[in-house]
Amino acid sequence: MEEFIYLDNAATTKTSPTVVEAMLPYFSEYYGNASGIYGIGVKSREAVNLSRERIASTIGARPEEIYFTAGGTESDNWALKAAAEMFCSFHVGNTVTETHKNHLITTRIEHHAIINTCEYLEKAGIEVTYLDVDESGIVRLEELERAIRPETFLISVMFANNEIGSIQPIREIGAIAKKYGILFHTDAVQAYGQLPINVEELQIDLMSASAHKLNGPKGVGFLYIRRNLRIRSFLHGGAQERHRRAGTENVPGIVGFGQAAKEAAETMETRTVYEIRLRDYLIDRVLKEIPYTRLNGHRTRRLPNNANFSFQFVEGETLLIMLDMEGICGSSGSACTSGSLDPSHVLLALGLPEDIAHGSLRLTLSAETTKEEIDFTVEKIKQIVERLRNMSPQYEDFVSTIHGEPDTCCQAAPEPVS
Fold it and tell me: How many CB atoms sit inside 10 A of residue 94's CB?
């Protein structure tokens, strides 16, 4: 075994050596400001434009529809707040935009960058509908359509969930939004680089992504804004990003993002086939060999590298600590809620009781993950879960009550939905 086994790629990925190599000249050789008119400034601007073209090509967009940001959180904030400013009686400083639309639709399982932005908008007078999901974490399209009102201006549904990996019916949601003349935003931070995306075919108007989820650098992302949308600036200052996002460009980060996007697109087909095979092997072993265990999320309609389990009678944080002592890196959910004692809002939205939601473990693979690492990890999980359950009075009471019969609420994975 290596010094450690890294199975938390949904939190962040290792920066590719070729990405680092592409970035290095823009730290020390071509370090000019991309707004400069002298040689090294022009070189930086050309590198930014090349990355914009590369990223646009991966999603079927035009280069001028790609706006670089500091990451997925900024992109999400910009999309929702700017859309609200377009349509609502929404105060930003001394500016008030007067229209009749003040309602947006999202889901209960969004990333906190969306959830907390929606809560901010609610305080500003925006009405928000939070859609429930089914037990696999999938939006019910009929409920989405019923939630639409004449005053609805935006639907924001994540492409794939960062905790449980479930992939939403984005094509169908885009069609519904188009039917009613509503803007459609998707947080594709987890999906970009893992799933094929074409914004034209899927009728996406706004899309967020982040470099560090696909072997790129941290601190850089993009927001896709469909051409002709009257989206205003999020950061005010200079004229960068065509007057829509002020601030000196993070040229090395943008160069790294462009290189990472190019590599992800080129390797996606073979890489995801490998990850799916290894992911399913992991899921099958855990469900078959560890009783009272549940797979969270859809069994097949999930991100290629994502496996999320709940172990009954086990505290997830303790499981993570003990796995770390064995050199295994995993998580209990979103990295953005690390340190919180509250159970995952995503797992609660699936209908799981709090005690079971507390016993969750998310393992997310990469193309570098090996079968030997998965076997080692499963064996360690089995040992740790057995040890923790043997220390649990609740487990002892449970076993004595049911005489060892499996608990049907946690033994098997949810049935796939059609």
Answer: 5
The catalytically annotated residue of 118, 329, 336, 409 is 336
Joined tokens for residue 59: 């999603």
The model's pTM: 0.92
Examine the residue annotation and report whether 118 is marked as an active-site residue of this protein: no
Residue pLDDT, tens place only, 8-52:
999 999 999 999 999 999 999 999 999 988 999 999 999 999 999
Residue among 19, 52, 22 at smallest CA distance from 240: 52
Evaluate whether 246 touches 236 at the Cβ level (below 8 Å).
Answer: yes
Q: Tens digits of per-residue pLDDT, 164-201?
A: 999 999 999 999 999 999 999 999 999 999 999 999 99
Integer angstrom CA distances of residue 119 from 124, 126, 127, 218, 380: 9, 9, 10, 26, 40
Mention every residue, 6+ apart, whose C-beta is less than 8 A from residue 395: 312, 313, 389
Rounded to 5°, angle at Cα 207 from 232 and 253: 85
Nearest CA to 47 out of 259, 225, 267, 216 is that of 259
